[in-house]
Amino acid sequence: MPSYKAPIRDMQFVLQEVWSVENLLNTCPNFAEISPDLIDAVLEEAAKINETLLQPLNQSGDQEGCQFDNGKVSTPKGFKEAYQTYQESGWPAIAADPNYGGQGFPQMVNTLNEEMLSSSNVSFSLYPGLTHAVANAIEQHATEELKNTYIPQLTSGEWTGVMCLTEPHCGSDLGLLRTKAESNDDGTYNISGTKIFITGGDHDLTDNIVHLVLARLTDAPAGVKGISLFLVSKHKLNEDNSIGERNHVSCGSIEHKMGIKASATCVINYDNAVGYLVGEPNRGLNAMFTVMNTERLAIGVEGLGLGEVAYQNALLYAKDRLQGRAPQGATHPEKSADPIIVHPNVRRMLLTMKAYNEAARAFAVWVGMHVDLEHHHPDAEQRQQAANFVALVTPIVKAYFTDVGLDVCNMGLQILGGHGYVSEWGMEQFVRDVRIAQIYEGTNGIQALDLVRRKLLANNGEHLAIFTEQVDKFINEQNNNNAMQEFIEPLNNALTTLRDVSQWLLDNAGKNPAEAGAASTEYLHLFGLTAFGFMWAKMAAIALNKIDGSAEKDFYTAKIHTARFFMQRLLPKVFSLKQIILTGSNTLMAMPEELF
Ligand SMILES: Cc1cc2nc3c(=O)[nH]c(=O)nc-3n(C[C@H](O)[C@H](O)[C@H](O)COP(=O)(O)OP(=O)(O)OC[C@H]3O[C@@H](n4cnc5c(N)ncnc54)[C@H](O)[C@@H]3O)c2cc1C
Fold first, then answer.
1. Residues 243 and 171 grouped into a single domain
2. Ligand 1 centroid vs 458 CA: distance in angstroms?
3. Is 15 a domain residue?
4. Residue 20: which region, alpha, beta or left (left: phi > 0; alpha: psi -120 to 50)?
5. Which end of the chain is flanked by fewer CB atoms within 10 Å, N or C?
6. Is 176 close to ligand 1, i.e. is its CB under 6 Å away?
7. In a domain, 190, yes or no
8. CB 248 less than 6 A from any atom of ligand 1
């Protein structure tokens, strides 16, 4: 049976010591009521509910899965009651807008809640997670009437929200979508079509579900410029907003799938369902991006959350499992063998897992802080700067965290050997559960293209500078700190490599249309590694500063060891990535299709 303990000390380290949540609270007036102590209390409470309520349902939820019977979807045993407790305790509202009953906590903090949810029960996390994103999209794009009607119940978690883009013939290429919307005289629309793979499209946790559906108006132009966004409620509402008769929305079936089995993945049919336009006609993708961008950050954090719980369980096992002897001689001669943590290769895997997880946590909180600045900084220019930064790094959080998350979970499984492969220990579930994160919310391949085309090339590298200038500033601050040079030098080399490769893309992508796609995944990984290098250098600087005389010497010493491991054994991958990128697209494109 796997276990989970929320890494509260590391979360506090990142929030307070690395990124000073207090600065954020002092900068944005809307956080005036929130104090660091209150944040600590929230994290402690979140840890409790995740450790004691949600994690114990994770393995049984996987074994039982969701069921579909006679048009109705039911979640596994215990989920309905757990959702009720979760909802009544106010957790869905934690980072939501106070104007609609939310508690208004910073995203910087909410990111850590999301991590805990993904560690404890990622299937469960998807029901409230999508709801939060749907409420955000309605808030930013819908009419006041729709906002007032739907956001309060989404905020409280009384209803859940889902996003409906994918159709059988249309996944990454949304321009192909066919679901249609016909206007009615009363200003509503009739929505007809079939969506597939809809997470939480139907379930038994709440009485109503709010669908945000992409569809095409009858006179819409073809392609992505003819897509509009509609709100379709599973139940129509009465005059007083209470739940009325069923709308013409039905679940056709649910998918049987590799992981996240307690999350209902539904085929949803709309047969002249009544819908309301959200935002402007034919600008639906733009509005849907609000959901997708919020969700992409959350999906990245899924990679981290599952990586963290895999690490915790692999570590417990590695300290307990006795096999073989340490290379320098027995460390536990009184026992029949040494614990496997003595073996260099097992240490390599554990340190890799720890190094990626802790860097991802620091990076996620940094991005969360920019999301807060984007929405709440009093100065418009600062808001725009933060928005540009978030846009730049969103594909990195989504794709790099989840690529790395799969590797981390896989290493966790490997540390348990055969016991990792069988279901009893729960490690194989983490590998199965994390795998989807590389696919949904736009595949990681699409994220990599987004990074190169829209975030680097489209603005001539200007947004990249928002990142590189912050790293430069840190490097310059540390130039006279001798103890830091073992971290600063590799970081500087990685940054130079990122700049060189970015310049190469800016110079070459225009000459050959295949170049951006050919470089994209390696570029995203190079960027991710450099960003993690920055996180480790920052964490090392704080640890070096605090270690002397600290009551938490072990905590800071572990940070320094892990930073050193990252700099010496993981960050140098940037050089091979650069070499691969500079070979260009020829090897990928030269072979004729029929020779495959
Ligand atoms: C469990 C689960 C839950 C999901 N939840 C939802 C949901 O709630 N709502 C929703 O709307 N959808 C959802 N999806 C759908 C998901 O977002 C899509 O599966 C995903 O976007 C990919 O689309 P596709 O499966 O059609 O693959 P395709 O688009 O057919 O892609 C196949 C492969 O080709 C690559 N590819 C495609 N186009 C390009 C290109 N232009 N350049 C380079 N590579 C390309 C892709 O990266 C991928 O590797 C879910 C899917 C699953 C499995």
1. yes
2. 24
3. no
4. left
5. C
6. no
7. yes
8. no
